[in-house]
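Input/output pair, single chain:
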Amino acid sequence: MIYLKSPAQIAVMRQAGALLYEVLQELRQAVKPGMTTKELDEIAEKAIRDRSAVPSFLDYHGYPASLCTSVNEQVVHGIPSDTVVLKEGDIVSVDCGLIFNGWQSDSAFTVGVGQISEEKQKLIDVTEQCFFLGARQAVIGNRLHDISHAIQTLAESHGYGVVRELVGHGIGREMHEEPSVPNYGRAGQGVRLREGMTLAVEPMIAMRSPAVRELDDGWTVVTIDRSPCSHYEHTLVINERGLPELLSYPGYVFAEVDRK
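Output:
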């Protein structure tokens, strides 16, 4: 079942998103060569709790950390560790969620560690562009897979692979609600989008093949060909004007949208 949120509920989700935005800005600035992914996790947990929120990833189905830190060929769910040291030229995807007054927000970004290659920077940039092109389809009257199709089309136009096994999702009181939001699909398909729907849209784009596998830790997902992967995510709502508003990017409302 898809839960439509009331204006009062959306107001709290805006607060949660604003807090998460602050946490991710702190994390983005903290990334540097020589630090461990465990150090990033410690920064995240403190930043979340300092804002009277709760890390939503910690103990979720047994997950042992407040962050997912996925380095290079790791797609998602990389477990922070004091043995994983970020090196110049790496890219790291930082995925974080929090709960504020019972409501969830979820967001992710990929960033270079020090100086990175032009090839890796382009992958990061295109993944972000995929998100924004997809998110602008989230308007009343469009279909869910209009989001998916926009992401897939842009990514594949650059020769990149769109990971199939991992998708975005609805979000609200629970981190994962219906509907699933794939990053590939046919335009005009899927449920009709309505006011009050809250979605976490999150393209996961591989530089080459999109084929993935899960490591023995039961969490970390990697590309089989070990090509780098980029991840970008925000929580959004279809607001009272029928427009996509990014809850985890305060004040970002799409003025130009693609209505079908």
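The two ends are 24 Å apart (CA to CA). The domain at 7-252 is CATH 3.90.230.10 (Creatine Amidinohydrolase).
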